[in-house]
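In practice, a research group might receive sequence data for several interacting partners and want a quick structural hypothesis before committing to experiments. The following worked case mirrors that situation: the sequences arrive first, and a predicted assembly follows.
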Amino acid sequence: MIILDYRDRRPIYEQIVERFQELMMSGVMEQDTQLPSVRSLAMDLSINPNTIQRAYAELERKGYIYSVKGKGSFVADNGALKDSKREAVLKKQEKTALEALGLGVERERLRDIIDKVYGRGGKNDD
Amino acid sequence: MIILDYRDRRPIYEQIVERFQELMMSGVMEQDTQLPSVRSLAMDLSINPNTIQRAYAELERKGYIYSVKGKGSFVADNGALKDSKREAVLKKQEKTALEALGLGVERERLRDIIDKVYGRGGKNDD
DNA sequence: ATAACTGTATTAATCTAATTAATACAGTAG
DNA sequence: CTACTGTATTAATTAGATTAATACAGTTAT
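A structural hypothesis for the assembly, expressed as tokens:
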């Protein structure tokens, strides 16, 4: 479920946070699904439980999960989170477009990619 | 020319590398333009010359600049680099579009952002 | 040649953040 | 009571970035 990349120079607690976010945003992990326990996941990944603890604390702070002492950690209701994810992807789109513009990439190249991804439904077919 | 962000958790030598890459890729710094000297830029940014040295070494390793002992560091011929940068941004565009699609963002939202960035020249105005 | 610039290299010290380690405490469930 | 859960805390370790202090080598102008 989680794979660590030690070549990645980002801290591993951050990799764990990101990975769970992906799983929840994509719907693979549904609301109220229980996450692996702090200690068991630490065992699985061969890392210290404190590092998992930190990742889970971060996920909770961001609203992705909720934790109950003695029971476990669970996927939160993240309808609102999906909204913020949508905002984030729009920001990313803007950044990409700015970069493309700076490189002299034509507007049409970007539009074509979007159409390819979304399918040619609203536009002309090949 | 260079502004450091100490809140950014990436190392500052990396920020410097990225900033120069932007300046060169966008054409602000043309081929054979001399970069500020290691020591003078260190003075300007109030950081250690070794950090600039590291940034320049990285830029040279990546092929963005060339350095001549006793003379200085200069913008390299980076036509090939621009091409690969363009490819990279197109991949990024595809990734962004895929993510947006997965989140249920409408195609038009992406197109609007592109138009905003590129200016409304080719489309309708507000 | 010499002074004042350039880049480059090296070694040690310092600093910060991430991670580990070792516990301890508190709540839940069988 | 036992064995799980999450949570908190303090100390030690590790790794990387940065600084510091030099030294050496090449260029340029005086």
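Before designing any experiment, note the following. The CA atoms of residues 19 and 100 of chain A lie 28 Å apart. Chain A has two domains: 12-77, 80-118.
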